[in-house]
What we know:
Helix content: 10-25%
Bound molecules: 2-oxoglutaric acid
Shape: elongated
Amino acid sequence: QLKNKFQNDVCISETAVTTFLAIGNAGLSCGFSESDIRREIQTGTGKLYVPLLPINRSIDSLAHSNHTAGVDIFLFADEPFALLQSCCTAHVEVIFQALINRIVELGNGQRLPWYPVYLLNLPHCVSSTSSHEMTDTKHPPGLKYLSEFITEEKEAELIRFVEELMASEETKSSGDFLKNRTTLHFGYQFRYGKNDLDLDTPVRPIPGELCGDILQKLVECGCVTRIPDQLTVNIYEPGQGIPPHVDTHSVFEDGICSLSLGGAVVMDFSSGAEDPVLQVLLEPRSLLAMLGESRYAWTHGIVPRATDSLANSSTTGQTWRRLRRISFTFRCAKKTPCECDYREHCDSQRALIQTNPGIPNAHPGD
Ligand code: AKG
């Protein structure tokens, strides 16, 4: 029935615990409602299903309107199943265990068994409305984190592509082997010395067959306003990282999208030396979209070290050993000066301020 409704837009996970569930027999056509599902989860989990959040993110931070208690539920007219999403696999696993083999009674006394299965993704029609926009004070405003943005199969395909490219003679001579990571560029070459793009000499395009569906999904999820035309692939061996930086305003548009593959890593965000560093765990297959203030006014970086742990996390004490991590950072090249609201951080507007002293310089001394 899932396949009938969504065709290939949804994939059942045969082995992995994910953040998405489909629950057979819990849908509207069987006579159940959203509140029935919430009640069954609460009863089945002994009302103790507050998640073990592995991410420094409280359940209150999820901005979806019909979101309560950390769970998004989606029901469809005339369908016998419900879809469910929560913020972490540990949380969903507790719900799965509570619902498997559960027989639920309808108002008329009829009893139906519920059948939960893990999904690798949610269909597009709901995933674009269920992204976890982080609006709490513990994360930079505008940051969007989407877990399981791609399937495990897609992740494997992307990793294979990078590994083959890395082994090629051409890359061995032309790849950017930086001190703390290796990078490959598509669309336009990023020039590290100048921190800009070489717009005059486009390089190999972003591979359409491999990345077309991802590019489309980035637009559908509101991470970017048009299809990105620049991709930087970063390959981090365990222990490697990237210095804190803000992507130059005049070089890239709003919406910097980083897709994580392989190992998990903690990314640090900072809005100034005196402010606390905020940490976000980037899980494999997740997408992090930096938008607005998080893109323009906060630095992001990865400390070079062998293990990560999260301060102030509900899983305090948990550490993640670094594995090889590959990130695909999709961006839109900017071809006109930046007009953002974060003038003190903006190279375009600083240049304007310097040539027009009538405009107060928000960053004296620059
Ligand atoms: C960059 O290439 O500028 C990045 O910030 C990469 C971030 C990442 O690896 O997720």
